[in-house]
Amino acid sequence: TEWNVSVWGKRRAFTEHVHKLAELVEQKTNGEFTMNISYGGLSKNTENLDGISIGAFEMAQFCAGYHADKNRAITVLELPFLGVNTLAEEVAVSHAVYAHPAVAKEMAQWNARMLMTSPMPQYNLVGTGKARHKISEFGGMRVRATGGIGEAFRAVGGVPTSVTSSEAYQAMESGVVDTVAFAQHAHLSFGTINEADWWTANLNPGTVNCPIVVNIDAYDALSDAEREALDSSVDESIAYYLDNYGELLTRWDAVLAEKGVEKVMISDEELAEFKKVAGDPIQQAWIKEMSAQGMPAQELFDLVNDTLAKTRAGN
Amino acid sequence: MAGTSSVLRDASLLSALDRSLDVVERFFALISGIFAFGLMVLAVVSVTGRNGFNKPLSGYVDWIEAFMPLIAILGISYVQRNGGHIRMDIVVGALKGRALWLAEFITTFGVLLLMAALVWGSWAHFDRSFDMSAPLWSRDSSIDIGLPIWPAKLVVPVAFFVLCLRLILQLWGYGRAFILGLENPVAVPLIMSVAEQAAAEAEHIQGRD
Amino acid sequence: MDSIEIGLWVTGGMLVMVVLGMRVAFAAALAGLIGLIWIFWDKKDYELAQLGWALTVAIKTAGQVPHGKVASQALSLIPTFILIGYLAYYAGLTRALFEAAKRWIAWVPGGLAVSTVFATAGFAAVSGASVATAAVFARIAIPEMLAVGYDKRFAAGVVAAAGTLASLIPPSAILVIYAIIVEQDVGKLLLAGFIPGVFSAFVYTGLIIGLALTVKGFGPPVTGFTWRERFESLPPAMPIFAVVIIIIFFVYNPFGGDAWGTPTEGGAIGAFIVFVIAVFRGMRWAELKDALMETAKLSVMIFTIIWGVLIYVRFLGFADLPTAFSDWITSLHYSPMMILICILLAYAVLGMFMDAIGMLLLTLPVVYPAVMALNGGEYVSAADSAFGMNGTMCAIWFGILVVKMAEFCLITPPIGLNCFVVAGVRDDISVHDVFRGVMPFFFADGVTIALLVAFPSIVLWLPSLA
Ligand code: NA
Ligand code: NA
């Protein structure tokens, strides 16, 4: 069996688990089951679910925030201030939510089955000009942020301004935006860190959620040995991803020093204030809106919190 | 492009259909142009809002992406009617009479097959983003302000469907010209207008070529 | 059958369809669709029962491309820059520019043709689309040249060639598209296009003067303008400079502060100012409607090629040909400069059958990384590199070379978009006439490209200051 896998951009920390998975699967099946990973050749990034639905390729990565209406259920994972602190916690809550029947049902509409997540750290801001330490200073801030994170900044008077990730650097340089919210690897690969004067180390407003899915028919058509090889490689691939991303995070402080970027620590009072305005109200609004659409929203939201509590208790 | 070809008309049913469809095609092309203008206005609003009032237009990129299919695709049949899509005319330029109409018929038929397939394919693309049971019928939304995408996706099969009608008329025109052995058939773009042909012949007689 | 073989068959089939006279956009899309069906059926070992599946998947995959690729902020520059050209025409700005150029410089040998080149180069500082520039100047400059006895083919050729300047002299839709495909700084690229653009204009001028001096009865000088007439011609053309200055501030703030916005926005603001001038100078609905219809026509024509080519590109992606190609390029045992020259020659050949943007979309995802690798990678220093420049500078240099090649392909037969556009404006001039008339400019472009390759500093001096 040969599978085509659609991802986008260039190979980076964000896609390392896919490469690891391909390697493991090939090993375990003695080369019977191979994966051909394509960066943008098979689909546009916002249309990967469409490609899975058609059956054009067998496996793909996508981000929930690109098209909330395609994947309403998992947008719970992009809500601001869920309190997820580590990548391991992000994996735990993501996989718990992916296992929920409402998610499986919604993905089945796309002929898709959740395989694993691509955990990302909290999206902190890089900015130009004078560092912003207070939430009140976020008023009128033009920030590149999508989904729930964008909503959070809107709630404190910021103006979410849409540019694609590949134009974020240019937008920052030309003053179209003055701050950009990304995970660390994206600040590096899209060059926004080069333009930055400061970085918020502990704002932690939330993150985006980017699952890897497989086409259901293709998954069912695998031989038992192949399916076993695939399923059993998920945990190992995720572990590899976490190690790899962890290394990047330990390098991060050195990068900041090298580029002369100020590390902004926001006080606990300010964080509490931000969370009060942008956390709870947005979360509750999401629950209300999704419940009205017949989604078990409260259940999904509770699932995130319970899983988080359990994960912490387990450690 | 357009000017080197022109479409003749007469009192036949084919010509009447050609002209009726032309009305629709012109209307679609005008919508294309108006939205190109709208794109400019959108940018002006966005820039003034951002630089003048610190209030950037929310979802600027989402709106651009919603406009683009109207600008770039809706007028496709209008351009086809007038023979405006570029091509290489080394071979067809050398053909005359029945051989020319046959060649035109074959390539046009190939395009009709393609476009019929793409009506289906682009409709399926629209259909995946459309859900009668969802709010705003939306099962696919834009990144920033969650605009439903299905209206923009619907533009494509609609424009392609009109193009298919146009291609059928052109096949009819070329087929008729082939069977009847016509010299200047109606309802198809002719490589050179009659006036040009006359001018070209006059030039030829003068021996300038 | 392996995918390289399928790729070759499908590509050959596309060329046959193009030669038979199928519209290029549709030939590319049809080839892509057939290729997709083939690839998907191949995957099922050509079982007859699976043909229906392969057809469905291929058609649905191809059906995503028109909307998916056209709904893009980057490409939204194209209609904006086409619109600005037609609005400037109705605002009388292009005529004023041509008139001023005529009164000041038409006294040289080949005067009106030289004036056309300079007026077009001036207008290029506002317009970012070569085809629209050629279309507009065909309406203005050709009648004047014919009136003083130019050969109609040469008059048309001058306009078609001079129109290409709009994509080197900033702003430029095609440079922005290059910047976005390869993820480089748009501002620096636009800046880098300026000197090569002006340089090209002077090479064209030299060629015209040379021809005028050697060919008898070729483009007589136009003399007899008084200094008073010359100065009177300037004020009507002045608004162009106001627009130019505003666009400059959007691309790059010369006073060292932030630029005012993105180049995309700069183009739109420029178009809006031109629109206001046009209304002020008497443009009404009838003229505006004409401008909108012309904009729609050119935009649709270009975008149809774009999505058509991209269906073919999608097939190449599934056939995994880009990987095969870049592996092959990097495995070659020639010097990097030799390979670069071969790539540019390949562009010249490919460009004969392609339009500029289609060609970039088709090739850059494969060729750009290969060229960067040849130079020593994205982060190479100038000292360690093959071409004597760091990664960023190499991206800029190659971008300008490629855009110049793309411009070249706008005037080469059999598919030279600018020549089609010029012939489209004039009922009395056929495409073949334009191709005939534009031929001397192939030589001029060849010289320009050779000099840009030999002396990269022509390209890199300005962006290295920024
Ligand atoms: Na320009
Ligand atoms: Na060409």
Describe this structure in words.
- Chain B: Part of the tripartite ATP-independent periplasmic (TRAP) transport system.
- Chain B: Pfam families: DctQ.
- Chain B: InterPro entries: DctQ (IPR055348), TRAP_DctQ (IPR007387).
- Chain B: Keywords: Cell inner membrane, Cell membrane, Membrane, Transmembrane, Transmembrane helix, Transport.
- In chain A, 47% of the residues lie in helices and 14% in strands.
- Chain A is an alpha/beta fold.
- In chain A, helix 5 (147-155) links the parallel strand 6 (142-144) and strand 7.
- The model of chain A has no long low-confidence stretch (mean pLDDT 90).
- In chain B, strands 1-2 form a two-stranded antiparallel ribbon.
- By secondary structure, chain C is mainly alpha-helical.
- Among the domains of chain C are: 1-71; 74-297, no CATH class.
- Chain C has helices at residues 3-19, 24-43, 51-70, 77-90, 93-105, 111-124, 130-147, 152-163, 173-182, 186-214, 227-232, 234-251, 263-280, 285-319, 321-331, 336-352, 356-375, 391-409, 417-425, 431-454, 457-465.
- Classes of the chains: A alpha/beta (315), B mainly alpha (209), C mainly alpha (466).
- At the B-C interface, helix 1, helix 2, helix 3, helix 4 and helix 5 of B face helix 1, helix 2, helix 3, helix 4 and helix 13 of C.
- Bound molecules: sodium ion (2 copies).
- One sodium ion binds next to helix 16 of chain C.
- One sodium ion is lined by residues 124, 127-128, 166, 169-172 of chain C.
